[in-house]
């Protein structure tokens, strides 16, 4: 069975400086993996490289396969179809991860409608709205109707991160990458978010690849953990 | 009065007051401009009264040195100013936003080339570029002035769009949209344009004012709308010789010009406060 994500000797360089060197691991269906390391050790870059979204100026080498499709060196246009089906990401900073000028309901509806369209079961109007509210309720947001009408700045940090998770889950991805999803939050909220994420990865056939600076609190969400060293200078 | 009432009041009143002042000023010009299409007090080319008459019931703000009714000319001027402002900003916005987005998405060398070209364009005074384009076209008419001003304004819009779009492009929500499979055109339409719009719209209003003033300057120099069309700039220029005997001929078009420019700026300020939900919710 093809692994959901397979990295083989992945290296990321900025000019001549090596940021990530020869990283190899694979993630099978149903598996969870935690990537642990200090700031600047290349966790986020690995996540971005796996989706082909490295910022300009950084060059990847080696191989990263999403569900058997090579990502490194594949043009963006071809990857667009893969993104949001094979993979989705939850980002570190919940404030910048949401469009400040768009109501929450509309933001969540966006990936939801796209995924439904790809599945040849387009959602629109009332059905789409119901699906959005159901998804918001699923990530344990209180009063989904009110939250759907709100703008990001009207929510708390934890609520924003739940919305970001809802948006990633809306894609029904084969692989969910959570890039330090709790770093910007306080300890109590961190625990809640972990419960939210682990609940999901346990209940469904989700495949998580989590990265965190410190070992997560409470029930460790990862079945396996990898520690990354600071990249060699 | 309690201290709470004192501090609460301005926050609530300020945006709507600004917006209403803008709506009233601009609305007045729009009404007058529309009215001038269907009704004018006098034939703009006819000698309706004596020369340089003061305000009277027959001629509310007097007559010019040829005995033509000044109010009639000011009303036509409102219409011309609105057409010039809207036309120039529309051209400048279409051209500038397109170029700016192109530069924001372009590869390094194309971005640099565009930025250098825009810098050169910005380095020239708007009026000078407009004069060049008008002088280059065969006949001086309103449209050549509008196109010229539009091109001159587009450089600033492009520069602003480029930097605003670049700032939005690095945000996580753009990357998030990319990871969930959004295409670039869609991201531009639903994320980038709405997020740069509040800043752009205020700039468009500033440029509307600039365009109106620039057209008045062009007309003043004889490069604007040809004589049967009464632009405020030409009324000013014609009143120049008699400014000591009949000052109203110069003051009236000046006031009209200033009120429209201020009105548009107030309108944009008020609108931005309404568009931007982070400002509105307080």
TrEMBL record, chain B:
Pfam families linked: BPD_transp_1
Record's protein name: ABC transporter permease
InterPro entries assigned to the protein according to its UniProt record, in alphabetical order: BP-dependent_transpt_permease, MetI-like, MetI-like_sf
Transmembrane region(s): 17-42, 80-106, 113-136, 142-161, 204-223, 243-268
Organism: Devosia aurantiaca
Record-linked PANTHER family: OLIGOPEPTIDE TRANSPORT SYSTEM PERMEASE PROTEIN APPC (PTHR43386), PEPTIDE ABC TRANSPORTER PERMEASE PROTEIN (PTHR43386:SF25)
Record's bilayer topology term: Multi-pass membrane protein
Family: Belongs to the binding-protein-dependent transport system permease family.
One GO term describing the cellular component: plasma membrane
């Amino acid at each position: 069975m093809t692994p959901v994500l397979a990295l083989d000797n992945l290296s990321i360089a900025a000019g001549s400086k090596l940021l990530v060197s020869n990283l190899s691991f694979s993630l099978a269906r149903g598996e969870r993996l935690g990537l642990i390391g200090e700031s600047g050790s290349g966790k986020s870059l690995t996540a971005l490289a796996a989706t082909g979204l490295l910022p300009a100026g950084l060059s990847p080498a080696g191989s990263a396969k999403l569900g058997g499709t090579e990502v490194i060196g594949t043009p963006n246009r071809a990857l667009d179809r893969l993104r949001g089906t094979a993979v989705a990401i939850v980002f570190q900073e919940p404030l910048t991860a949401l469009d400040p000028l768009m109501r929450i309901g509309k933001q969540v509806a966006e990936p939801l409608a796209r995924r439904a369209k790809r599945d040849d079961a387009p959602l629109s109007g009332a059905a789409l709205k119901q699906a959005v509210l159901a998804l918001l309720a699923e990530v344990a947001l209180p009063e989904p109707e009110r939250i759907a009408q709100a703008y990001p700045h009207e929510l708390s940090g934890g609520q924003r991160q739940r919305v970001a998770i809802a948006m990633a889950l809306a894609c029904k991805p084969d692989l969910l990458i959570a890039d330090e999803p709790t770093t910007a939050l306080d300890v109590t909220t961190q625990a809640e978010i972990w419960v939210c994420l682990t609940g999901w990865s346990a209940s469904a056939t989700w495949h998580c690849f989590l990265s965190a600076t410190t070992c997560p609190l409470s029930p460790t969400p990862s079945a396996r953990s990898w520690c990354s060293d600071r990249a060699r200078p | 009065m309690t201290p709470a009432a004192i501090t609460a009041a301005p926050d609530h009143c300020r945006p709507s007051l600004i917006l209403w002042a803008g709506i009233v000023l601009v609305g007045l010009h729009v009404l007058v401009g529309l009215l001038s299409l269907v009704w004018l007090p006098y034939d703009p080319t006819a000698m309706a009264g004596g020369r340089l008459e003061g305000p009277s019931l027959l001629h509310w703000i007097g007559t010019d040195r040829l005995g033509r009714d000044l109010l009639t000319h000011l009303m036509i001027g409102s219409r011309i100013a609105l057409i010039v402002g809207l036309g120039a900003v529309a051209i400048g916005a279409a051209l500038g936003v397109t170029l700016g987005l192109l530069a924001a998405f372009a590869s390094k060398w194309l971005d640099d080339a565009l930025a250098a070209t825009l810098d050169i364009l910005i380095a020239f005074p708007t009026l000078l570029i407009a004069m060049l384009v008008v002088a280059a076209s065969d006949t001086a008419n309103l449209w050549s002035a509008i196109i010229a001003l539009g091109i001159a304004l587009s450089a600033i819009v492009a520069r602003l769009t480029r930097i605003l779009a670049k700032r939005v492009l690095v945000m996580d929500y753009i990357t998030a949209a990319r990871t969930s499979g959004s295409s670039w055109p869609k991201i531009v339409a639903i994320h980038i344009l709405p997020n740069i719009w509040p800043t752009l719209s205020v700039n468009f209003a500033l440029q509307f004012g600039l365009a109106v003033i620039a057209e008045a300057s062009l007309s003043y120099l004889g490069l604007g709308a040809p004589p049967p069309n009464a632009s405020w700039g030409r009324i000013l220029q014609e009143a120049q010789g008699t400014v000591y005997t009949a000052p109203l001929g110069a003051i009236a078009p000046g006031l009209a010009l200033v009120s429209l420019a201020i009105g548009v700026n107030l309108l944009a300020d008020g609108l931005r406060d309404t568009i931007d939900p982070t400002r509105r919710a307080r």
